[in-house]
Write a structure and sequence with these properties.
This protein has a two-stranded antiparallel sheet. Helix 3 crosses helix 4 and helix 7 crosses helix 9. It is elongated and about 100 Å long. The protein is built from twelve helices and two strands. About 65% of the residues lie in helices and about 0% in strands. The chain folds into two domains: about 100 residues, Multidrug-efflux Transporter Regulator, Chain: A, Domain 2; about 150 residues, no CATH class. With about 260 residues, it is an all-alpha fold.
Length: about 260
């Protein structure tokens, strides 16, 4: 006859686990001997080993008691259900592993190859990492909203980098973002606004900005505008400067009837 410590050691569990199984009614408590100690027989050892095996296999403790009392057919059915649940959990874990691998890959998290290539182009023209990070977050919002449009959009965006003025704009904005010591009076904000207004005027004249165009989904645009301000509060000042130059909006430019006084 075994003490509780001997029982636990033989079955490969802790004494604490044995006592827990007693408390939840999974393993009956043994009778005490004349000395007041509980003594466990062979059946208790067998039961505890079965409990340990089922628990290690992922069977919830609440189901183990029923499985130990089930006939062969019922037991096999329960095992099949547990196996299916474990299979689903393994698939979820595999998906999580892939997502973790994407995290380690940096830019590839939630972004298709076309956007990653564009971010690399920004680095090549001298854009700093904080600016690239802000761009990356913005493209995550865009990809989530309009995934089917990304190949065409990114081809057009990459082609636009042939414009020296756009490259200059990116570099100026990058300099602003990389420098936390300047505020709303940074003269580079006015330089950026001048370039943005000029580019917007060109796009308006060529028909790229259509004032009659109505979006059926304004939320992504609103989120992009909010992201710009959250990434750098100086974006609010840049918006004010753009309004002074006759343009409203950030990611969807709107030509004002007349620039404010």
């Amino acid at each position: 006859m075994l003490t509780i410590s001997q029982l636990a050691a033989y079955a490969g569990v802790t004494v604490r686990a044995v006592r827990h199984y007693h408390q939840i009614g999974l393993l009956p408590e043994a009778d005490r001997d004349a000395s007041g100690y509980r003594r466990y027989g062979a059946k208790a050892v067998v039961s505890l080993i079965k409990i340990r095996i089922l628990a290690n296999a992922g069977v919830p403790l609440a189901q183990i008691g029923q499985m130990l009392q089930a006939d062969a057919a019922t037991f096999a059915e329960a095992v099949q259900r547990i196996d299916s649940r474990l299979h689903d959990e393994i698939e979820r874990h595999e998906t999580s592993r892939k997502q973790i691998a994407q995290l380690a890959a940096g830019d590839s998290l939630a972004l298709p190859p076309e956007v990653i290539s564009y971010l690399d182009l920004l680095r090549e023209i001298g854009v700093g990492e904080r600016m690239v990070e802000a761009e990356r977050d913005g493209w995550i919002l865009v990809v989530a909203a309009w995934p089917e449009d990304i190949p065409a959009v990114m081809a057009a965006k990459s082609a636009q980098l042939d414009d020296p003025q756009l490259v200059r704009l990116y570099r100026i904005l990058s300099e602003i973002i990389e420098n936390d010591d300047t505020g709303d009076d940074d003269p580079r904000l006015a330089q950026a606004a001048d370039i943005m207004a000029g580019l917007a005027e060109q796009a308006y004249t060529s028909g790229e900005i259509n004032p009659d165009e109505v979006s059926h989904d304004e939320l992504p645009i609103d989120l992009l505008d909010a992201l710009a301000v959250e990434s750098d509060p100086r974006a609010e000042r840049l918006l004010d400067l753009m309004r002074e130059r006759g343009w409203a909006g950030w990611h969807r430019m709107e030509r004002l009837a007349e620039p404010p006084d």
